[in-house]
Specification:
With 116 residues, this protein is of the alpha+beta class. It is built from 2 helices and 4 strands; from the N terminus they run αββββα. The longest helix has 31 residues. The radius of gyration is 21 Å and the shape is elongated.
Length: 116
């Protein structure tokens, strides 16, 4: 009986250690940009989801702005844009965000659990 309890405690400790290592490894990869190299000349300004796996993006290449359509299979050029046509103010909750940081999502889940 005691050995079963000790085995359970050991498994829980190993599981927590794996979670901690995974968390810090993910943070390190995000900081170093090992997955996606950062560029000073190419930047995604805004992304809007129009259907599953279908997006319209505003991108900046150098000093010019363009709109593109992005699907799972291809990327389609839509139109060049002038800086005067764009609104760079934050929209708050109305702006659709495709990627939510894990820390924010976990905070929301924990907050909902505490309210229950």
């Amino acid at each position: 009986m005691l050995s079963n309890v000790l085995q359970l405690i050991a498994v829980v400790i190993v599981f927590v250690l794996v979670l901690v290592v995974t968390y810090y490894a993910t943070k390190w990869i995000a900081k170093t940009g090992a997955i996606q190299a950062q560029s000073a000349n190419i930047k995604v300004i805004e992304t809007f989801k129009i259907a599953p796996n279908k997006y319209i993006q505003i991108i900046k290449l150098g000093t010019k702005y363009y709109s593109i359509g992005v699907t799972k299979e291809n990327i389609t050029f839509l139109a060049p844009l002038e800086e005067e046509q764009l609104d760079f103010t934050e929209r708050g909750n109305n702006q659709q965000q495709v990627v939510v940081p894990f820390k924010d999502m976990l905070g929301k889940i924990i907050k909902k659990d505490k309210e229950k």
